[in-house]
Amino acid sequence: MIASAAIEKPTTPKVAASPFAPPSMMTPPPDGGFAAWSTVAGCWMALFVQFGLCNSFGVFQAYYESNLLGHKSPSQIAWIGTLQLFILFFGGLFVGRILDSHGAHVLTVPGSFLIVLALMMTSLCKEYWQFILAQGILFGIGCSMTFHPSVSLPPQWFSKKRGMATAIAMSGSGLGGVIWPIVIRAFFDSPRIGFQWGTRAVGFISLGLLAAANALIHKRAPKRKPLPWFTMFHFFADWHFSLTIVSIAFTLFGFLVPFYYISTNALALGAPEAMAFYTLSCMNAGSTMGRLVAGFIPSLTPLLILPTSSLLCGIFILAMWIPLKNVASLLAFGVIYGMFSGIWLSAIPPCIASMSQLPEIGAKLGLTFGSASIFALVGAPIAGAIVDAHEDLSAALCGSQSVKHIVGNDGAKAGV
């Protein structure tokens, strides 16, 4: 009888594990704990370095116009900064897919090395094409390999506190945008340091911060085979996801223009050179506040925060940026625009995560930023070309003579 019962007992067939790690194979986010908050801290430090430096390109823009690249137009110089951001966002198409399958460190470690290498190479640059290669392309690749893991990992560790954790991590980029312009400008103005050693010093500081960031970051998703490309593009079948990407893309088209030209506009309005460079720090200080505010609005969902903050950014550009006539109004605009732009940027990762299953967050965020990358590339140079080609419009935008008249053809500062 025992043998018969053993024979008649039904057996459960073994089910092979899916190579793409479906969501059922992942436990719910712990919403706290050492590994989770350690990852947030590591992402904060990584974003402080790489996106903080991207937010600080306005300092390089103004310095290049006045010194190393005085023979180039503002539009041509802006291509260096927008190229690094284009590569940063476009790389998400590849980085997000690798992140979901192999974890963060396979990206963040080499990405950190490339960021430091790019800064060291930038310190040696003298020609325009050299800046394009080092500060544009190489730095952009390193940033892409660190940015996407840094914004994708907090949503994997948190559920109820997802917005707060992401906002805290994203605030690193805003605070970096406050501190880096002050530090970089102090290095450049110092007769004992200057541009070359100042840029190298930024590289050494970045090396220490990125090493600590890589030590703090913990992966959560198990290793698995990468999602097939055709599966990734099936995400566009979700019309909520597709419309969100369109919204982000069009916002990025004009999003970066104030960050790139606020310092040069301050010079055009007659601000002392030292004050002009601090306007970017004021804007990034507002952005830091906005990033933190975005995570502590419990009554609003990211899907509501995203279009609202984007609309307010557009309104403040029309109401303040175009008609501004003095430095005080420019500073006020910088803080207000920075705050709402920070809210908008911090709302993107939790917004996309709310439309995704856990193993898809990295791929969907990468697809989002990759699809919008072309708009980030061309926005600021188009704005610079418009101002450069139409002096009347330049006077209207700056409220004074154009920067082209302030900086002589030989790069010497005139009339500041």
Explain how this protein is built:
There is one protein chain. The protein has helices at residues 2-8, 34-55, 57-66, 74-90, 92-102, 105-122, 128-157, 162-189, 194-216, 229-233, 239-255, 257-268, 273-294, 302-321, 327-353, 361-389, 391-398, 403-406. The chain is globular. Helix 6 packs antiparallel against helix 9 (194-216). It is an all-alpha fold and 416 residues long. The protein has a single domain (33-219, 236-406), classed as Growth Hormone, Chain: A.
Helices and strands, with pairings:
Elements: H1 2-8, H2 34-55, H3 57-66, H4 74-90, H5 92-102, H6 105-122, H7 128-157, H8 162-189, H9 194-216, H10 229-233, H11 239-255, H12 257-268, H13 273-294, H14 302-321, H15 327-353, H16 361-389, H17 391-398, H18 403-406
Helix pairs in contact: 2-7, 2-8, 2-9, 3-4, 3-12, 4-7, 4-16, 5-7, 5-16, 6-7, 6-9, 7-8, 7-16, 8-9, 8-13, 8-15, 11-16, 12-13, 13-15, 14-15, 15-16, 16-17
Subcellular location: Membrane
Protein name: Major facilitator superfamily (MFS) profile domain-containing protein
GO cellular component, one term: membrane
Please report which band the strand proportion falls in: under 5%, 5-15%, 15-25%, 25-35%, 35-45% or over 45%.
Answer: under 5%
Which superfamily, in CATH terms, is the homologous superfamily? Answer: MFS general substrate transporter like domains
Mean pLDDT: 76
What oligomeric state best describes the polypeptide chains here?
single chain
Provide the gyration radius in Å.
23 Å
* CATH architecture assignment name: Up-down Bundle
Helix content: over 70%
CATH top level is: Mainly Alpha
